[in-house]
Amino acid sequence: MLSTLNDEEWRLARLERLGLKEDPFKLSADPRYLYLGPEHLAVYRQAQGVISRRRGLALITGEMGMGKSSLARRLYDVYASEPSVDICYIHTAAFKSAMDAARQISVAVGIPTQRSLQRQMESLERMMADTFTRRRNVIILLDDAQLMVPEALEVLHRLYNFDYDAKVAQVLAFGQREMAAVFETNKAVNARVFVRLALPPLTLSSALQMVLFRLQVAGRSEPFIDDDAFELLYEHSQGVPREIIRLCALATDYLLETDGSTINLDVVREVTKS
Question: Which of 181, 198, 215 is the last residue of a domain?
Answer without folding.
Answer: 198
